[in-house]
């Protein structure tokens, strides 16, 4: 019986893959990330950093090393990065965006679920983990 479960469980879970459509308005809009439509499934953070290039490279490395997370687009010249994070169980996809403003010494981070009304705090925790991993100071 355990062998049957081991063979069928991945197929059953694959039936519940909820990726959702890629949002059409990802990216920078007038030099800014778009605001969150709802704090129930989206989180935004602004981090003050001393070295923008070093911090963005470290964030990209951290995202690349996070299981289930893939870098979709990295544009260092524009200070923009887009990654996706896919949950293990149901395959929910969240979009993670970073934008650096060298003049202000600030990196803006945004993480939003593509589907659902609530993310149970996953996106906020993801951004907090990124900040903690880099020891970044969050601005109010």
Structural descriptors:
globular, two-stranded antiparallel ribbon, alpha+beta, 31% strand, Alpha-D-Glucose-1,6-Bisphosphate, Chain A, domain 4, 140 residues, single chain, six-stranded antiparallel sheet, 8 strands
Shape: globular
**Side-by-side strand order of the widest sheet:** 4-5-6-7-3-8
Mean pLDDT across residues: 86
The CATH C-level name is Alpha Beta
| Number of structural units classed as domains | 1
Distance between the first and last residues' Cα: 54 Å
Would you count the extended β strands for me? 8
- Order of SSEs: HEEEHEEEEHE
Percent of residues in helices comes to: 25-40%
Can you summarize the main beta sheet? 6 strands, antiparallel
Which blocks of ≥5 consecutive residues have pLDDT under 50?
none
CATH topology: Alpha-D-Glucose-1,6-Bisphosphate, Chain A, domain 4
Q: Please give the radius of gyration in angstroms.
A: 16 Å
């Amino acid at each position: 019986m355990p062998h049957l479960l081991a063979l069928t469980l991945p197929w059953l879970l694959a039936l519940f893959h909820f990726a959702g459509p890629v949002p059409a308005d990802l990216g920078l809009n007038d030099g800014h990330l778009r605001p969150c439509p709802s704090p129930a499934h989206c989180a935004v953070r602004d981090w003050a950093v001393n070295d923008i290039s070093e911090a963005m490279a470290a964030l990209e490395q951290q995202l690349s090393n996070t299981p289930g997370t893939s870098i979709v687009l990295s544009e260092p010249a524009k200070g923009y990065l887009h990654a996706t994070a896919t949950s293990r169980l149901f395959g929910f996809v969240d979009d993670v965006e970073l934008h650096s403003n060298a003049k202000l010494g600030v990196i803006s981070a945004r993480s939003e679920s593509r589907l659902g009304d609530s993310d149970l705090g996953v996106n906020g925790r993801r951004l907090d983990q990124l900040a903690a991993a880099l020891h970044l100071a969050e601005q109010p």
